[in-house]
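Researcher: Please predict.
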Amino acid sequence: MTTEQKNVLTAIEKMTEAFQNKDIDRVMASYEQDAVVVFEPETPISDPKVLREMFKEMAMINPIFTYSGHEVFITGTIATHIAPWEMTAKTPDGIEIKQNGLSIAVLRKQEDGKWLMIFDNPHGQFLMNK
């Protein structure tokens, strides 16, 4: 990977770590103001207040994410990150949850050199399974 590809991957890893640690402020700081996140297939959300609440709710199940590979493609100031993922979690009442999918994220390089997500779809496999 090039240095910039590593920077994109680092941005993704920092967001994942923040989410797993329930640091919702750091999670939100990983996104541009008008970013779109697809928590459920075919249901994009871009309202920052709703996104914050969705991340808070999801953090309550103590998710742990693992990735089985990463691809990063960059053109100019736009990057695409693609990664298969698995998540294990537990509801507050002890029910185990296991999910997996294909994450597709689009990031934009900011003027300060930082990469922020503008689109985040952890259900990139949805159409193949439809």
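Model: The chain has a mean pLDDT of 96.
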